[in-house]
Amino acid sequence: MSTIITEENNLTKKDFVTPNDVRWCPGCGDYAILNAVQRTLPELGIPREQFVVVSGIGCSSRFPYYMNTYGFHTIHGRAPTVATGVKVANPDLSVWMITGDGDGLSIGANHLLHLLRRNLDINVLLFNNRIYGLTKGQYSPTSEVGKKTKSTPLGSVDHPINPLLFALGSEATFVARTTDTDMKHMIETFKAAQAHKGTSFVEVFQNCVIFNNKTFDSVTSRESKEDQVLSLEEGKPLIFGANKDKGIRLNGLDPEIVTLGDGIGHDDLLIHQPSNSNSAYANILAQMTYPAFPTPVGVLRKLDGRETYEDALIQQLKHAQSKDSDNLQELLIGQNSWVVEN
Amino acid sequence: MIQPTDSFEEIDSAVVRFAGDSGDGMQTVGERFTDSSAFAGNDIATLPDFPAEIRAPAGTLAGVSGFQLQFGNTKILTPGDEPDALVAMNPAALKSNIGDLPEGGMLVVNIDSFKSMNLKKAGYESNPLDDEEFRKKYHLIELDLTGLTKEALKESPLKPSDKVRCKNFFALGFMYYVYGRPLEPTLTFFEQKWGKRLPDLAEANSKVLKAGFNLGDTMETARNRYQVSKAPVQPGVYRKISGNEALVYGLVTASIKANRELLYSGYPITPASPVLEGLSQLKNFGVKCVQAEDEIAAMGVALGASFAGDLTVCATSGPGMCLKSEFIGLASITELPLIICNVQRGGPSTGLPTKTEQSDLLQALFSRHGDCPIPVIAAHSPSDCFDCAIEAVRIALTYMTPVILLSDLYVANGAEPWRVPNVSDIPVIENSFAKTEEEYVIYRRDSNTLARTQAIPGQVGLEHRIGGLEKGEDGGVSYDPDNHEEMSQLRAQKVAGIAKSLDPIEVQGKPEGDLLVIGWGGTYGAISSAATNLRDEGFSVSNIHLRHLNPLPDDLGDIMERFKKVIVPELNLGQLNLLLRAKYLVDVISYGKLQGKPFKVSELHEKFLEHLR
């Protein structure tokens, strides 16, 4: 999203911290994300009173209580609807929606779909920890098949939702992924989300230390990330590996991992083009999952130019107001009135 | 056949019903007859009655659509118990409506449609029009509407199939003759609707309408014409208005009087969709309309926009109310202003989507979990929807609370003449936001109304968080047991305190006596007529009609005590009755009806009489 930047202000992280005690479990990935958001907002050039943080229900959805901005902790799954109302009522606000894998992709998936397709200028941060934390450890719609939890003692049989594919399928104009283990990358990604005009969808890999600890470790841990994370940079070839010697090449419609050298150079690799109007490329990236492929992080898709819902709506109002009268008395009398004399 | 007379009879009122296939344009001719009668200076009340299916198989009983109206030279409060004249476009329409036509009533039938196939579809084994008994029973007028319409349009360039579709206006023209209605409003309507776009159609309909009227003049059997003179009414500018239209205009007016931008958020549902459609037409008044992905989302959008400072409204019907419940609870605990209109229809579940009922009263009061009182008001007539919309907004903004406004299908689709108010006479709705320079405590309350003050995103220095978790006065999340009880009490006292702002109840009839009739919502016309008739007959009966259902007015208990008996007629199985018994420990008599139809004056008359003897 890209709210009007008014003037230089001297905000710092401290201005976004509330006096409330933060009540997430010690070691929860949410702390890192909160820290990243509190460090991002002061750098956007937007006055503090213009920020509104809206959430649903779940651990992640306590977020607004810890942000010293306007905030609304709503009901389960429905944050996209409330965020839509806030933005339509006042398009000048910078609206940030916080949700989780259960809140956003299970009970609230319908609303999330409609928010994304309408393209309101809102930033959506979906904390994906692949578990229901607040209800103490049932499997979520992003849990892997076979996941053993309190509600799936023999393992889950549900095929999980891929959040990025969901967003792409909803024709989101901005789709990104970041991880709670990489502060710098989170801040960069949140800034990119803010810079985009339209709904920005960001999946954040988030660790639930109590009920699903280390769920992303095979990808994001210090030991594995060099080989398992594919960092996306616009205009650059898809290269990864501790020695930067592996890349992604397209074979027909399928991506494949190749080793650089032996006649294979950068020119053979896919070049990251998030602004491609065809979403096929972003879909290929979104389907690259562990263990077959390195996991892409960064901005997968960034499509400029589609009008936002609120701009289109306000435009219609302005057009009607310039064309037709707003005389209330005339409206009430209507076209077929009659007068009764004394 | 009853022999017609040649006289031009002066009558006080008349009830006319048009019935045909749902594709026959019966609602259209009903609307036009209403306009014409309003134009003639009569008072009117209407009852559109149509099936849930848009086009059920042609000619079947399931597809019959009807429109009844009563017009008169005195105050007309209901569309009438039974028609004086019935227009039946086909055998199915005849079969499903003839039971309501009293002996001697005028029956106009489209003879062309009484063929074996249609008779069979309607379940007639033989043609009722061949039955001598039947023919003697009514003042029967047989018209070949199809043939007459074709003949009138001999010269028209319309396709033959399009010509035949104009036959409803032939029937209308004929009825205009019988009741001496002016043609001008309908001719103007044709011109406005089709004049530019489809001039041939406008021309054809005008021709057919006039041909129908002229046929009456030349036809011996139609020579008993009726005249209904103007109703004596207060001077002023009048228009015809339906309940849903009045609701739309009331909401726009209230937003202007409250100086807040109006945001409407809705999901299509019968019979509330015309509110969404009506407000969508008013973008020139700055009305923001969001058609949400579902009923829940509609409520979420409205609540978000309310948080951001707009005046926000949802309208729906019973099934939608069920879905909105959780959000209404959130609106209550966050104490944000919001209007939720429930245009009631028959329930439960999908129930009777195109029939009227008043069975969502207890839902409005109690459908949330937790102790969650919400103000509830109900409109009693089409034009009353305008006043109720303004009253709902007054309560919502003064007391910082969601408000439920109950309408019903009968009120929403019915129409009556409305004396258009002078906009400058409508009081301003006071409301304000927190001041930037002052200390802001989210749940600090006004000592009089107990309302909190609203601060909206964008206001410097008033950043704050609200949400569904219980809060202390300062807005911090609080699980403290005493705090929860105190906050629950405060929310309840705030809503109860609205009663202090209400005018005394208006009692029709004497302030004490044998029988008090208490009504609410769309039953006003029938109750009021029945009670007035009984008073004229010398009985000690009075009636009151409640606009405020929560909180109930403070003087209600005293009024009930002054009567020997209290009866509550309502289109449900006794919901207000239950409330009154619970709150006042009064042995209220319940009279419920649950047929998807409004009360008839005669059935109320009879029931009241039972308790007066």
Major pleated sheet of chain B: 7 strands, mixed
Binned strand content of chain B: 15-25%
Low-confidence stretches of chain A: none
Mean pLDDT of chain B: 95
Strand content of chain A: 15-25%
What is the CATH fold-level name of the largest domain in chain B? Pyruvate-ferredoxin Oxidoreductase, domain 3
- List SSEs of chain A in N-to-C order: HEEHEHHEHEHEHHEEEEHEHHE
Class from secondary-structure proportions of chain A: alpha/beta
Give an account of the 3D structure.
The complex is a heterodimer of chains A (342) and B (613). With 342 residues, chain A is of the alpha/beta class. Chain A has a domain at 13-215 and 305-316: Rossmann fold, CATH 3.40.50.970. Chain A is 28% helix and 18% strand. Chain A contains 11 helices and 12 strands. In chain A, the strands form 2 sheets. An 8-stranded mixed beta sheet of chain A has the order 2-1-3-4-6-5-11-7, sandwiched between helices. In chain A, a hairpin with a 5-residue loop joins strand 8 (239-240) and strand 9 (246-251). The radius of gyration of chain A is 23 Å and the shape is globular. The N and C termini of chain A lie far apart (61 Å). The mean pLDDT of chain A is 95. By secondary structure, chain B is an alpha/beta fold. Chain B has 3 domains: 8-227, 3-Layer(aba) Sandwich (Pyruvate-ferredoxin Oxidoreductase, domain 3), CATH 3.40.920.10; 239-425, Thiamin diphosphate (ThDP)-binding fold, Pyr/PP domains (Rossmann fold); 513-612, Rossmann fold, CATH 3.40.50.920. Chain B has 21 helices and 22 strands. In chain B, the strands form 5 sheets. A 7-stranded mixed beta sheet of chain B has the order 11-10-12-13-15-14-20, sandwiched between helices. A 6-stranded mixed beta sheet of chain B has the order 3-4-2-5-6-7, with helices on both faces. In chain B, strands 19-18-21-22 form a 4-stranded parallel beta sheet, sandwiched between helices. In chain B, helix 2 (91-97) links the parallel strand 5 and strand 6. In chain B, helix 1 (26-39) crosses helix 8, helix 5 packs across helix 7 (167-178) and helix 8 (184-194) packs antiparallel against helix 9. In chain B, 54% of the residues are buried. Residues 1-5 of chain B have low confidence and may be disordered.
